[in-house]
Amino acid sequence: xxxxxxxxxxxxxxxxxxxxxxxxxxxxxxxxxxxxxxxxxxxxxxxxxxxxxxxxxxxxxxxxxxxxxxxxxxxxxxxxxxxxxxxxxxx
Length: 91
What we know:
The protein is an alpha+beta fold. The chain is built from three helices and four strands, in the order αααββββ. The protein folds into two domains: 1-49, no CATH class; 50-80, no CATH class.
């Protein structure tokens, strides 16, 4: 059923609204900034320790929706990044 006809029916509207609540309104979730910071720290930590490479023959074709997701599953290899010993920064 198209969204425009689903919005006209009250029983379908109840099923749709919970999925749209993050996209409208002037109020933000209290934990949104904290969740974004946590996500950034996780990605930064992973990026400093591993390198992701597409398996030979794999092609990444993004499907542009609200976010970019691959059109087909993507196979990747994970390689450890050799980092030098951590030393205190010199000023």
